[in-house]
UniProtKB/TrEMBL annotation:
Coiled coil ranges: none
Quaternary data: Homooctamer.
Protein name: Delta-aminolevulinic acid dehydratase
EC number assigned by the record: 4.2.1.24
Biochemical pathway: Porphyrin-containing compound metabolism; protoporphyrin-IX biosynthesis; coproporphyrinogen-III from 5-aminolevulinate: step 1/4
UniProt-listed Pfam families: ALAD
GO molecular function: porphobilinogen synthase activity
Organism the protein comes from: Alkalihalobacterium chitinilyticum
Length: 326
């Protein structure tokens, strides 16, 4: 029999040490952003029913959570607010004494080194649950921009290091950049939810943030999941308007979009590992159908491999513990 000639790729898989040496994609704690939900009241530590291990926290219990994040070495958090008072224009979103503003001030007083990102939207603060001003059942784009800019300025004034607008109004980055610059916050970066799809994966988050729309849906401002080129148009617009980071949300079903946005823009790209992705893994793990640690690490590594520089994930604390085990 003549000698066969073929490639022996398995030579680089023979031992754990060799596999580690040639590994192309690495997941680090520095890649992670951890979401925190803050709410009114005292001694509130309310687990989100559809998100095991995720809690709404009142300010008197917030320090314990943030201390844990800092001790684990997670470099950044993003703050979502769950207010008591809501109205048709989301006044508590841009009030200097709103729940998000109070939380940011409290966190920065104790942990000035922690990067605090403020989610900048109105849906948690409006009584109708939409991300803007409503007139005759429609979300008005331009009147909403003024309120978003006011919200961003109030969050920067409270001490936010990064503003992360998530509303998907046309011109929202330009309006917020203008508002921040006029108020003297030239150095505050904008982490834009540049590519945000009208996804079915958001359900558990709406439990956590009490932000479900009271009528209709968000398909007039969030993107059609079938569209790819639209994502590039949205990303380009946000960069031209002054965005410093680009978020792709959700992540798992949009890995192709993450790669295209990264290649197209060259900007830092953030993958949002959203609530539905989190809850599916949690449910399967609790039923014994999958190994949670292995699936989470594989999933987040796929986001890094697709081109994400950062990952916003509810698994952040667990991931750091698992990485430390290694």
């Amino acid at each position: 029999m003549s000698e066969l000639h073929f490639s022996r790729h398995r030579r680089l898989r023979g031992t754990a040490s060799i596999r580690s040496m040639v590994r192309e994609t690495h997941l680090h704690k520095e890649d992670l952003i951890y979401p925190i939900f803050v709410t009114e009241g005292e001694q509130v530590r309310q687990e989100v029913p559809s998100m095991p291990g995720v809690f709404q926290l009142s300010l008197d219990l917030l320090d314990e959570e943030v201390n844990e994040v800092v001790d684990l070495g997670i470099p950044a958090i993003i703050v979502f607010g769950v207010p008591n008072d809501k109205d048709d224009v989301g006044t508590s979103a841009y009030c200097d004494h709103g729940i998000v503003q109070k939380a940011i001030r409290q966190i920065k007083e104790v942990h000035s080194e922690l990067t605090v990102i403020a989610d900048t939207c109105l849906c948690q603060f409006t009584d109708h649950g939409h991300c803007g001003v409503i007139e005759e059942g429609k979300v008005l784009n331009d009147p909403t921009l003024e309120l978003l800019a006011k919200t961003a300025v109030s969050q920067a004034k409270a001490g936010a290091d990064i503003i992360a607008p998530s509303n998907m109004m046309d011109g929202f980055v330009a309006a917020i950049r203008h508002g921040l610059d006029e108020a003297g916050y030239h150095d505050i970066p904008i982490m834009s939810y540049a590519v945000k799809y009208a996804s079915s994966y958001y359900g558990p988050f709406r439990d956590a943030a009490h932000s479900s729309p009271k009528f209709g849906d968000r398909k007039t401002y969030q993107m059609d999941p079938a569209n790819r080129l639209e994502a590039l148009r949205e990303a380009e617009s946000d960069m031209n308007e002054g965005a410093d980071f680009l978020i792709v949300k959700p992540a798992l079903s949009y890995l192709d979009i993450i790669r295209e946005v990264k290649d197209f823009s060259g900007a830092p790209v953030v993958a949002y590992n959203v609530s539905g992705e989190y809850s599916m893994i949690k449910a399967a793990a609790q039923n014994g159908w999958i190994d949670e640690k292995s699936v989470v690490l594989e999933t987040l590594t796929s986001m890094k491999r697709a081109g994400a520089d950062l990952i916003l994930t509810y698994f952040a604390k667990d991931v750091v513990r698992w990485l430390n085990e290694k």
